[in-house]
Design goal:
seven-stranded antiparallel β-sheet, five-stranded antiparallel β-sheet, 19 helices, homodimer, about 550 residues, alpha+beta
Chain lengths: ~550, ~550
């Protein structure tokens, strides 16, 4: 079976295309001063790709290692691995800019083959950029490789075996090339689940999750991806490195934590040992409404404090709630809206909660949590909203394609902060985005939701919609992103809660981890990758 | 108020001395071939200490930094910081061997003072050994400092402030010199708790917990100490390093994990930001009995799988259960034993469980867990046993003093393994200890309990009792420890679950983390401590 692939200028295949309704179009005009137009992507598949710089001798050596079928220098193969899926990536691609492609794609079939590829690339001074699903949004695939003779994209797709299932210990060892749905369907046969469902779920790989410290929609309950990893194997230019041992060890610092989030700069993750759990028998999703964001945040904080957090908790701010209602646009929703307005939830905040466990536990926990939520003036609005969220949980990037086609800027950014800092981080980031993206007659729509809740704080995920500056679309977003990042860092937010660093966040890394933190990472990189061929430019800039 | 201090040759003050009853003495003779005798410790306080090697110029400079009162070269000050509390430490001390003392004790009063002390020690080539509570059991205070001009013990006792309490975000920033009870009593005023209760609780410090990746008796519920830390500040020879940000970040590898467990080799932890939680309103401890160890392990595994683990879960093997019954020796216990024998629990296994939460949660969870435990043939034996465990939870090291006074070898060692590997790790470790410590007419008593339970596995904590070889007591234990360590590593156990590496485990570190893991740690150390003055010999050997 052929796997579905990301399109070259957007997200999924064309049969998932979304149309904007007339009422949404009208609303966008009014809301942000959108100038309706059609801005289709260029047909990049027919743009000629630059000649490969891979030396013939290297090519021959790589073929020797991985086989003829698994070294590719054709245009389509290189295009597929040449960019992630950030707004900047897509704007570039849609404009026909396919610069920065890797010179070749290599698909090793084993850990040892990865080691051999790395050794050869060291010898020939070829940069190596690991490739998983290509869904990253921080420039993790497009690091500056100018200091090396050529760039190879090392696609882990063939490292997709499930090597062992220890159902007794709930530990599964698997290759980094497996996508979420492939892994989950294998686990389902054993009544197990991993429980990691980021928005990129359909395309992203286990290796990508690990390399970027991913968080998924259910991470409030199941834990961030880093918490789901018990061990990893890394192929580095200087050899193999196995890190992590379940269940726990006190033998020195945590080296697994050094590999998770390393974004390819230390080598290639070739194997992961994952903590799975019994698949939940019952799943229950429902919607609630809070009269205001502060009430909603307080409700979530109290749930965390009482250890009553659901597995999924997403709280939208008033603007996101309002936009959701408009975008869904059903009559049912309209009558619901009237009801909430009558209850004083006029500028209300939608909360989606999801419970996944055995039926008895779901029922007990849901009851206790519901009674707590009511104490913070939340009103239950039922399962329809929850089911609708569930049905659309991966649809955001498809909708984005439709918005990009009609002259809109659309992008997300995210952070996290302690409960004490969260309100100021929210206000400052929102203000910075609005200020940066407002011009006479036009203002952005800045929407936000809490996507992950912790006892100590929560994450904030912003979605920005604005009329695109057709003359300088990149510049328009870069300035807004810079303003937002400065704002959130200055108020105590983290640089990124689940999008990783890539090249886009690299300029701010030392703000987050300090100069000595950067120096320590450099020391580790220098030890494992002395010639600096591993994903150059990423993380460190 | 003067703080209680560890005695120089054992654990606590003399008023906590334990007496062995006649029945216990009789039982020890029969069980292990003990030859009753009195082996009191030498009065080490009156053994002359070696002259300090600290150069006068260094001494003057350190006094300049921390003040006259806080640089000490007197014998008692150096003796107090010159050894941990492992069996080997105590045997050496009790025999009058006080070699390896630090040349001076320095007590800085702030992060900046620690930085200045480190800088001066770099300049003068003085090794620096951080000192917290002195309760370590792996030789973390006695690293080989022969390559340096002198050794300074850097006691963090004065870094004992609580710098901030963010009750909203459940984050508390505190100095590393605070002991558990001091910290908990401060938290109690705010209705908060940290929940970290290792056996060394009365004397150990927050800094020590962090430096050694400690686990406590309630870590099954509250999490290992590493999970309770949100941030740390490290003073290194090359400057200050702040690591970790709550609630979560995806900005590169986890550098906090590099500091936790670093055992002083990268610098000195001068501040910790801890995740606290509301103090539980209800606490419920009780005992259960399983007919066998395999049944008990299966019961615990199923509790973990069902997410019904209590906050405290300790399962003793048949020999530890039997020894506990003999050592407590009450009539009540004897009738209980008869009852269990009648139920087929002749060689039964005692399980202590503890629940800490609000009363409703305790009741719901306890009921669900109890019904599951019964499915694995467990019999509830009531709260008395639980309360008795609670009352004696810190008494082990005091009892050890009494046993050391009468010619016994007594020591613990611990590991952890996945559920699949656990039975073999248990058998192999036990066999290795018994084999190594048996001589004609004498055999050790090897007791074991599961102290921490995880979804993927559990820890095993062994306690060994044997008649001491008075001629070669060190050698006797070193051989047994080596045999046990080789056995547990070969079967998939971790080198240490909560005792850290020190110098005692250093020879095996590369078995656990690989040569490349050791190389990465060296690279980090070389960056932060280029002249190698920080706790030399520890971790790396």
């Amino acid at each position: 079976m052929e796997r579905a692939e990301l399109s070259l200028t957007g997200w999924g295949p064309a049969d998932n295309a979304h149309e904007l309704s007339n009422s949404v179009r009208k609303w966008l005009r009014r809301e942000i001063g959108w100038n309706p137009r059609v801005t289709p992507p260029e047909a990049v598949a027919s743009v000629p790709t630059a000649a490969t710089r891979l030396p013939d001798s290297t090519s021959a050596a790589l073929i020797e290692i991985v086989g003829d079928d698994h070294v590719r220098t054709d245009g389509p193969s290189r295009l597929r691995r040449g960019a992630g899926r950030s707004y900047l990536d897509l704007i570039r691609r849609r404009g026909g800019d396919i610069s920065g492609l890797p010179d070749a794609v290599v698909l090793p079939g084993s850990h040892d083959e990865v080691l051999s590829v790395l050794r050869r690339c060291v010898a020939d001074d070829i940069a190596v950029v690991p490739f998983g699903g290509g869904t990253g949004v921080v420039g993790g695939l497009t690091g500056g490789a100018d200091e090396h003779r050529a760039v190879v994209s090392l696609d882990v797709a063939r490292l997709n075996a499930i090597d062992s299932i220890d159902a007794k210990s709930l530990l599964v060892t698997a290759g980094p090339g497996l996508r979420g749905p492939e892994f989950e369907s294998r686990m389902a046969r054993y009544g197990l689940t991993l429980g990691h469902f980021p928005q990129s779920y359909e395309f992203a790989t286990l290796g990508g999750y690990a390399a970027t410290r991913s968080a998924g929609q259910a991470s409030t309950g199941y834990g961030r991806f880093a918490e789901l990893v018990a061990g990893a194997r890394l192929a580095t230019p200087v050899g193999s490195w196995q890190v992590g041992r379940a269940p726990a060890s006190a033998a020195g610092p945590d080296l697994l934590g050094m590999v998770l989030g390393s974004e390819g700069v230390l080598g290639v993750i070739t194997e992961l040992t994952l903590r799975v759990r019994p698949a939940p028998e019952a799943k229950h999703y429902e919607g609630w409404s809070f009269p205001s964001l502060p009430r909603g945040l307080e409700g979530l904080r109290q749930l965390a404090r009482a250890e009553l957090l659901p597995d999924i908790a997403r709280l939208s701010d008033p603007d996101e709630t309002r936009a959701n209602i408009v975008m869904s646009g059903s009559a049912k929703v309209n009558s619901l809206q009237a009801l909430l307005r009558a209850r004083g939830h006029g500028a209300g905040c939608l909360l989606i909660v999801g419970w996944e466990a055995d039926p008895g536990t779901v029922s007990v926990r849901r009851r206790a949590a519901s009674s707590l939520l009511r104490r913070y003036e939340a009103v239950r609005i039922g399962r329809t909203v929850g089911q609708s969220w569930l049905a659309n949980r991966y649809s955001g990037p498809y909708v984005r394609d439709a918005l990009l086609d009609v002259g809109l800027l659309v992008e997300t950014l995210e952070t996290a902060a302690s409960w004490s800092d969260l309100p100021e981080v929210y206000e400052a980031t929102r203000d910075a985005l609005i200020h940066s993206l407002s011009v006479p007659g036009k203002q952005p729509l800045v929407m936000c939701h809490v996507s992950h809740v912790y006892p100590t704080g929560a994450s904030l995920c912003f979605t920005v919609l604005a009329d695109r500056d057709d003359d300088r679309p990149m510049q328009q977003w870069l300035l807004a992103k810079r303003a937002a990042t400065e704002a959130l860092l200055s108020k105590g937010g983290v640089l990124t809660h689940h999008h990783a660093v890539g090249i886009d966040h690299a300029p701010w890394l030392s703000r987050e981890i300090g100069d000595l933190g950067v120096a320590v990472l450099h020391a580790v990189k220098d030890r494992l990758d002395p010639t600096g061929i591993c994903n150059p430019g990423v993380l460190f800039g």
